[in-house]
Design a protein that fits this description.
The complex is a heterodimer of chains A (124) and B (107). Chain A has strands at 3-7, 11-12, 18-25, 34-39, 45-51, 60-62, 70-75, 80-85, 94-105, 108-114, 118-122. By secondary structure, chain A is mainly beta. In chain A, strands 2, 4, 5, 6, 9, 10 and 11 form a seven-stranded mixed beta sheet that branches. In chain A, strands 1-3-8-7 form a four-stranded antiparallel beta sheet, with no helix packed on it. Helix content of chain B is 0%, strand content 50%. Chain B starts with a strand and ends with a strand. Classes of the chains: A mainly beta (124), B mainly beta (107).
Chain lengths: 124, 107
């Protein structure tokens, strides 16, 4: 059974950093792209970024709103994906979800399995 | 970026009703469209991908159709567990974008 579990969410002050982890099980992690989405309180879903599998170069893509501040990485030996968030802003406050990519076209994937979500609150 | 719109924004329905939700893309996306269901406080779940392919384990009362710019999600006979928000998402081009969601609630 596929399972994704995020951790690392917290309350942080603007300008600070935070790293989220996404621990995967139930599938061959290294074979799949992993995507991060977020959802601000009471709002819709927003794509944050994704990382391709090593077979496709392991490269990353980011939303314009986070590019240069957020970094996605992966450790296939541990089946973990990471979202490093620097220079956090109040508008980054959201529940962050990691997802497994099913079929991908360019930087866009269907997300067939989602983690439970992890709340990041950026506030002074 | 491709803009996704959904209609209606909300619909009130009864158990057993047939419900149809429409999603429109601002430009053609072939069949690169997914539908997700989200219940309060929970993560979204994939229902349909490639516009009409049911994800594993999703009940057959859910169906999807369309291609190009216009898509529909149909619930043939609404069940109590179907009351939720439904989102469409295009995966044709970068960045992936979502519709604003359609809330299905109890009449």
């Amino acid at each position: 059974e596929v399972h994704l579990e995020e951790s690392g969410g917290n309350l942080v002050k603007p300008g600070r950093s935070l790293r989220l982890s996404c621990t995967a099980s139930g599938f061959t992690f290294g074979d799949y792209a992993m995507t991060w989405f977020r959802q601000a309180p009471g709002k819709g879903l927003e794509w944050v970024g994704f990382i391709r599998s090593k077979a496709f170069g392991g490269t990353t893509e980011y939303a314009a709103s986070v590019k240069g501040r957020f970094t996605i990485s992966r450790d296939d030996s541990k089946s973990i994906a990471y979202l490093q968030m620097n220079s956090l802003k109040t508008e980054d406050t959201a529940v962050y979800y990691c997802t497994k990519g099913k079929y991908c076209r360019g930087g866009s994937c269907y997300a067939d399995y989602w983690g439970q979500g992890n709340l990041v609150t950026v506030s002074s | 970026d491709i803009q996704m719109t959904q209609s209606p924004s909300s619909v009130s329905a009864s158990v057993g009703d047939r419900v149809t939700i429409t999603c429109r893309a601002s430009q053609g996306i072939s069949s690169w469209l997914a539908w997700y269901q989200q219940k309060p406080g929970k993560a979204p779940k994939l229902l349909i991908y490639a516009a009409s392919t049911l994800h594993a384990g999703v009940p057959s009362r859910f169906s999807g159709s369309g291609s190009g710019t216009d898509f529909t999600l149909t619930i043939s006979s609404l069940q109590p567990e179907d009351f939720a928000i439904y989102y469409c998402q295009q995966a044709n081009s970068f960045p992936p974008t979502f519709g604003p969601g359609t809330k299905v609630d109890i009449k």
